[in-house]
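Session log. Operator J.P. requested a structure for one protein chain; no other inputs attached. Running the standard single-chain path with token output.
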Amino acid sequence: MLTRAGKIVFGTIGIIVAISVWAVAIEPGFLFVDEIEISSPQWPADHRPIRIALVADLQIGSPHNDLERVDQVVTEVNASHPDLILLLGDFVSTFVLGNKVVPPEPIVQKLAALRAPLGSHAILGNHDWWFDGERVRRSLEANGIPVLENQVAVIGEGADRFALAGLADDKTRMPEVAKTLAQVPDGMPLIVVTHDPVQFADIPDRAAVTFAGHTHGGQIYIPFFGAPWIPSRAPRRWAYGHIVDGGRYLFVSAGIGTSILPIRLNMPPAIEIVTLRSAAKGN
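Structure written below.
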């Protein structure tokens, strides 16, 4: 018969095994669609609210993330009827336990089925550049998905036009925040996209919101503590979600794939559908 101490030991081992199985075999296979609302003082009152689908860190080739996963993402995004789709980098996977390298072409061919009135726009992440960034870029652009790297696109028509500024990846390239934002027409509403949230430190308050990925929310979320670690120079408090810092707005996606270790715990894969509206009363 087990002693009390033995029962505690075996019970503890059982809990650890159960959590490990969940974090490795179950939670990374989920895919949630989270509806988020952001009311920004920098989104003009005379601009209609806009629904933006965020797809970050597909990392196809990581465990639980094969080409069928791309089909699932496309189906979920299209069913959400966004106005605009933002692809936040790391389409391919190069560094995770159990990885199988999948080239960008079949991934992007499936992403070409994404549908939104204002189209899909992409930036590249560190895994894309570690694989072959130019090849990933060519694949995206050949399928009608423009890639922004320290570049600005003007999106929409008439009074609802806005600027989308895409920054280069922090780990593998040279993000040029000031030079990029200098391309934004004076007075035009601005949305910024960056793979790594570290660039948010340099974004001025004229941006309605900055969207980022890369962190996967830390892949592990501990209640009352947050992510133990994130793969970024950004502060840990920028690991995931809607962050307001100095009156500036950041949203960091949970992402879909995994990196280094194929685990997720209390941070399941997600597509976020963000409704961006003016903070002006009544909009």
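Operator note: The radius of gyration is 20 Å.
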